[in-house]
Design goal:
The structure holds two protein chains of two kinds.
Chain A (H helix, E strand, L loop, with lengths): L9 H9 L4 H19 L2 E4 L1 H14 L10 E5 L26 H8 L3 E6 L33 H8 L5 E6 L5 H7 L2 E4 L19 E6 L2 H11 L18 H7 L8 E5 L13 H16 L3 E5 L7 H16 L20 H12 L2 H14 L5 H22 L4 E5 L15 H5 L6 H6 L3 E9 L2 E8 L5 H19 L20
Parallel strand pairs in A: 2-3, 2-4, 7-8, 7-9
Antiparallel strand pairs in A: 1-3, 4-6, 5-6, 5-10, 9-11, 10-11
Helix pairs in contact in A: 2-3, 5-6, 7-8, 8-16, 10-12, 10-13
Chain B lengths: L8 H7 E12 L38 H13 L3 E2 L6 E4 L9 E4 L6 E10 L2 E14 L3 E5 L11 E5 L6 E7 L9 H19 L11 E11 L9 E6 L2 H20 L8 E5 L4 E4 L12 E2 L10 H9 L5 H12 L3 H9 L3 H9 L4 H9 L1 H9 L10 H12 L5 H12 L5 H8 L8 H13 L1 H8 L6 H11 L6 H14 L1
Parallel strand pairs in B: 11-12
Antiparallel strand pairs in B: 1-9, 1-10, 2-5, 3-4, 3-14, 5-6, 6-9, 7-8, 10-11, 12-13
Helix pairs in contact in B: 3-4, 8-9, 8-11, 9-10, 11-12, 12-13, 14-16, 16-17
The chains are: A alpha/beta, B alpha+beta.
GO molecular function, one term (chain A): ATP binding
EC number (chain A): 6.3.5.7
GO biological process, one term (chain A): translation
Chain lengths: 508, 500
């Protein structure tokens, strides 16, 4: 029983809890697994087994375990602020900081009765696509520990794929939920911008950041999304609409009837004339998945969104610009790291030394980029121009949605690449987000769902929908997942080499 | 402090024409801060009125204070501004420990209010001050630099920061350059801030206490040779925190700049600090290059789009503005503009008006507030409105005089009691036994005693030297400790000394 908890979906865990299993049992099983595996995977930055078990016991004692999400363990990306629990955003500059408050996402999950397993590793301040930019070490992909788990939510993806958490919260600025989900065989959804509260997410790029679910199935992702979604008066950009009904859409989608659904395949994302940088295996799995949708009754057509070609340069001006401002608060004055306060350095020097030593190379690169783009005399040419491109991308989406219900593309151009292979080539690293950036810039929802393996590694299928139509993402993803599971006769993650008996990577 | 050579003020004006401009920061009197729910009460223990938002903790987000936006629009309306239908907040990025986020949330190219004006009067002449913009932003924390000689960060041993003030809503009101004031430039500057303060008080949007930093001025001053088509290079004097200082700062800068221009030295466009004690300015931290604040629209806040109907409603509900009110009151009280100007300068218009409303005659009310009460305020070094006496109590005092219960001298004693917190005028009169003595036995006895004690004087009076009676009145007043009514005493003495 206890080993199977770590390969169950959350729906199955709910049933087990309702059936008499205790949250303490489930939690202990995950903690044991973390203890055994995380030395190799490096998915977590902070785990407090005692606190988790205490919390699980309290939920058991309340008699609520098994109702709703009560008693289900969860992992949070370390960008989510948690009261009294170390929160670093993967940065040295926040080492040791214990926030005095909870993010809305964390508070909602706590109120739902979930049990926090720990905080997961990430690229520093969510800047990266491989989790190699963490100040606290790399995270490895459970499918192949020599490969990256994606990023920036790579700790969350590795934890959920590796059986170190049943599900996890990630955040997505340019693809940081969808890309790691794709590379580890998970379902990951970036909600409509403004539909999940950003209060308590350590900001990277305010106009792009969104928290969302990372899970083993589409239904699980929908359940987690429902728990964290909805209006929050503490976030001015939060949209005041009712929490969407997503789990029900996922269940209905799994029935496999897509008749009448109009699906647009985006030419600029891996289509004719736009295959540079895409692996053939990825394109093949994508084509097969589109055919599967068609076989379920979907009406498929190709759609052109020319401005998508400009998404990458626009993103790498807007996100660093906002980041350069958002990260100004880390000056060593009030919290976190302080360097040089020895009586020999003045205020400016202490701030400079703190930032010099507290930030990693990628963060500095983006601060410099953003500072430059916002500078007087360059603002219009860079930031202003990028915002115009953003408008064009939104218009391309609107035009496309006039004809189709959803847009689809591969989630990433390639499968998980080897650790270290792109760390010295930022432009190659940035290209990992090629397919996910348009939805981020337009603020529309997008999901990644597994669509097969290439070279033994997972390939992700992306479904994008109009703003506030997140349920379409879940519906289409659930249909694809169900059809593939049926054809395979097993769940996608069941293909992951079982490692219950030995540590990841054999004799590590 | 300053070794600047100065040109005599009158000399400045023979050669140069000043242009001034003012940027005024007003802390709004909202109950909570601009972007969070923290209290704005002045004087609390340091860092007790803070939360993750106003401390700029990682992950925190701002939510704009609707009341602050409303107050800003009302200020704009009172200044005849155009109210934006679409307005945004922006980030002003710079590093300093008193801005917790590393940027100040303010407004840049899309302010709430633009293109207004304010007419001010100096010596009977009206000057129109054009208002360029009125925008909303957040205040910074307060630094306390410990251990240095100057109180500045340089040379300090360590610094303490109080974030209670961080995030208090701040409205910035910026004038366009004001040319043409000539010799009156310093007074126009002062009159503008004074009138602005009156408007803010009438709107009830701020307590506008300059000594608490509710109202802070930056004064721009430049000089150009008379007849020149171009304006000169301006300096921006900060830290000008009283009405009197506004005038002094402009005057000093004109005299200092004239001396430089006379010797052919270029004026540096720089920030200068005003020193209350010496009335001088000194250069701020020298900057090799201009700071680039990298303004961009604040992505954490949604744009503000004031509904036109709502703005029209706010405009309709504006209170009577000070200029209109003064003109109406001058008519009602039958006083000249100059007499009204005295009341304005003394900060007594509202006090007099309230006193009149409580039943006193306008002339009595003016007499008391500009006379005895102004003296008391001056002695105590406070504003009239800070005296511990209400307009209703002043009216009560005046009523007691009119009724003959007390005289002016007793009224001053009664006022002592009121200011000492002994209660209202009637209660103090009662408790201190200050009522004028009527034709009482006690007074008869005092009169008789005075005649008896001063037989020589009494004899002179009897002998027809009527003016000698004053000495006897004085004696009676002395023994009754002023409680007697001098006229009554005189009458009683006359009855006794002329009847026999």
């Amino acid at each position: 029983m206890s080993t199977s908890f770590t390969s169950m979906t959350v729906s199955e865990l709910q049933a087990a809890l309702a059936d008499g299993a205790t949250s303490a049992d489930v939690t202990r099983t995950y903690l044991d697994r973390i203890e055994a595996e995380d030395g190799v995977l490096g998915a977590y930055l902070h785990v407090d087994p005692e606190a988790a078990l205490e919390r699980a016991a309290a939920v058991d004692a309340s008699g609520k375990a098994g109702t709703g999400l009560a008693g289900i363990p969860v992992a949070l990306k370390d960008v989510v602020v948690t009261e009294g629990i170390p929160t670093t955003s993967g940065s040295r500059i926040l080492e040791g900081w214990k926030p005095p408050y909870d993010a809305t996402v964390a508070a909602r999950l706590a109120a739902a009765g979930t049990v926090l397993l720990g905080k997961t590793n990430m690229d520093e301040f969510a800047m990266g696509s491989s989790t190699e930019n963490s100040a606290y070490g790399v995270t490895r992909n459970p499918w192949n520990p020599e490969r990256i788990p994606g990023g920036s939510s790579g700790g969350s993806s590795a934890a959920v794929a590796g059986g170190l958490a049943p599900w996890a919260i990630g955040t997505d600025t340019g693809g940081s939920i969808r890309q790691p989900a794709a590379l580890t065989g998970l379902v990951g959804h970036k909600p409509t911008y403004g539909s999940v509260s950003r209060y308590g997410l350590i900001a990277f790029s305010s106009s792009l950041d969104q928290a969302g679910p990372m899970a083993r199935t589409v239904l699980d992702a929908a359940l987690l999304h429902e728990a964290i979604g909805g209006h929050d008066p503490l976030d001015s950009t939060s949209i005041d609409v009712p929490v969407p009904v997503l789990a029900e859409c996922a269940r209905r989608g799994a029935e496999g009837d897509l008749s009448g659904l109009k699906v647009g395949v985006v030419r600029e994302l891996g289509g004719q004339g736009h295959t540079d940088g895409y692996e053939q295996g990825v394109l093949d799995r994508f084509t097969e998945a589109v055919a599967l949708l068609e076989s379920m009754g979907a009406e498929v057509r190709e759609v052109s969104c020319p401005a998508f070609d400009l998404a990458l340069p626009a993103y790498y001006l807007i996100a660093p610009s906002e980041a350069s401002s958002n990260l100004s608060r880390f000056d060593g004055v009030r919290y976190g790291l302080r360097v040089g306060d020895d009586g020999n350095h003045d205020l400016d020097e202490v701030m400079a030394l703190t930032r010099e030593q507290g930030f990693g190379a990628e963060v500095k690169r983006r601060i410099i980029l953003g500072t430059y783009a916002l500078s007087s005399g360059y603002y219009e040419a860079y930031y202003g121009q990028a915002q115009k491109v953003r408008t064009l991308i939104s218009r391309d989406f609107s035009a496309a949605y006039a004809d189709v219900d959803v847009l689809v593309s591969p989630t990433t151009p390639t499968v998980a690449f080897p650790l270290g292979s792109r760390v010295d080539d930022p432009v190659a690293m940035y290209a990992a987000d090629l397919c996910t950036l348009p939805a981020s810039l337009a603020g529309v929802p997008a999901i990644s769902v597994p669509c097969g393996l290439s070279d033994g590694l997972p390939v992700g299928f992306q479904v994008m929908a109009p703003a506030l139509a997140d349920e379409r993402c879940y519906q289409v993803a659930a249909a694809l997942e169900a059809a593939q599971d049926a054809a395979r006769g097993s769940r996608f993650l069941d293909q992951l080499p079982r490692r219950d008996a030995e540590p990841v990577g054999g004799a590590a | 402090m300053s070794t600047d050579t100065l040109v005599d003020y009158d000399q400045v004006l023979t050669r140069y024409e000043p242009v001034i401009g003012l940027e005024t920061h007003v802390e709004l009197g909202t109950a909570s801060k601009m972007f969070c729910g923290c209290s704005t009460t002045f004087g609390a223990e340091p860092n007790t009125q803070t939360c993750p938002v106003c401390l700029g903790l990682p992950g925190s987000l701002p939510v704009a204070n609707a009341m602050a936006i409303e107050s800003t629009i009302r200020i704009g309306l009172a200044l005849g501004c155009r109210i934006a239908t679409w307005s945004r907040f922006a980030r002003k990025n710079y590093f300093y420990p008193d801005i917790p986020k590393g940027f100040q949330t303010t407004q840049y190219d899309e302010p709430l209010c633009t293109a207004g004006h304010l007419d001010v009067e100096v010596d009977g002449e009206t000057y129109r001050v054009e208002i360029e913009r009125v925008h909303l932003e957040e205040d910074t924390g307060k630094n306390l630099h410990v251990g240095g000689a100057t109180g500045r960060i340089h040379g300090a041993d360590h610094s303490l920061i109080d974030y209670n003030r961080a995030g208090i809503p701040l409205v910035e009101i910026v004038t366009r350059p004001i040319p043409g004031a000539g010799a009156k430039a310093p007074e126009v500057a002062k009159a503008y801030v004074t009138e602005l303060r009156e408007i803010l008080l009438a709107l009830g949007v701020s307590e506008v206490r300059m000594e608490q930093g509710n109202l802070r001025c930056d004064v721009n001053t430049s000089l150009a040779p008379i007849g020149s088509l171009e304006w000169g290079t301006r300096t921006e004097t900060k830290n000008v925190n009283s009405l009197r200082s506004v005038e002094r700062a402009v005057r000093f800068e004109m005299r200092r700049q004239a001396a430089l221009l006379d010797e052919g030295t270029r004026i540096l466009q720089e920030t200068r600090h005003f020193h209350e004690d010496t009335g001088t300015t000194s250069p701020g931290r020298s900057k090799e290059e201009a700071t680039d604040y990298r303004y961009f629209p604040e992505p954490d806040l949604v744009p503000v789009a004031p509904d036109e109907e709502w703005v029209a409603k706010l405009a309709a509900m504006l209170p009577e503005l000070p200029a209109a009110r003064r003109s109406r009151l001058s008519d009602e009280w039958g006083i000249t503009p100059t007499e009204m100007a005295w009341l304005v300068n003394a900060g007594a218009v509202e006090l007099v008006s309230d006193t009149v409303a409580a039943g006193a005659s306008p002339s009595d009310a003016r007499k008391w507030w500009l006379g005895e009460l102004a003296r008391r305020a001056n002695d105590a070094g406070t504003d009239l409105s800070d005296l511990a006496v209400t307009p209703a109590q002043v009216a009560e005092l005046i009523g007691l005089i009119s009724a003959g219960t007390i005289n002016d001298q007793l009224a001053r004693q009664a006022l002592d009691g009121v200011l000492a917190g002994e209660g209202g005028p009637a209660a103090v009169v009662e408790a201190r036994g200050l009522a004028v003595m009527g034709d009482s036995d006690e007074l008869v006895a005092a009169v008789d005693a005075a005649i008896e004690a001063n037989p020589d004087v009494a004899e002179k009076v009897r002998g027809g030297k009527v003016q000698a009676i004053g000495a006897l009145v004085g004696a009676v007043m002395k023994t009754t400790r002023g409680k007697a009514d001098a006229a009554t005493v005189k009458r009683m003495l006359e009855e006794r000394l002329t009847a026999s």
